[in-house]
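Standup notes
- DV: blocked on the single-chain target, sequence here:
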Amino acid sequence: MKYFKKLVGEHIYLSPMNVEDAATYVKWLNDFSVTDGIGSSFRVADLESEKKWILDNAGNYQFAIVRLEDDKLLGNCGINSIDHLRQCAEVGLFIGEEENRNKGYGTEVLDLLLDYGFHYLNLNNIMLKVFSFNERAISCYKKVGFKEIGRRRKAYYLNGEFHDDVFMDMLKEEYKQ
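- DV (later): unblocked, structure below
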């Protein structure tokens, strides 16, 4: 088996990343439809660097997003910038192929990450950052229960335009209310 079911939802599960998936990640990380939304379109991803990143981050709460019905890799997600003293962290995710977006996978991924963060990592505040033009992502985050907590105005330049960084968070006490 290529993947391991660490966090299991209704349609997807989160597995430790697999270095054999590096080529797929490189494909996605060189696709502007993915990288524009995660702020890394200026980078050029290559196979060796991606393999190294996967190996270096394998135990750092970074997960492959895998479809339950057929074990197909859909994307990547993680819990980052964990501060155990302050009990806060950040989350992020992307779905690689357009055909797998807008199917509720992102909502399910966030629910699994939030549950894990609040109930297993003892976090109290989980934050994310999204760009103001990414209305699909913002809608997903609001659906899960994230609230906007502020903006950094015109902080992201893309395709000749400036966009706001939108910061959203959720407290443990707000989760599943």
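- Follow-up: The first helix runs from residue 22 to 29.
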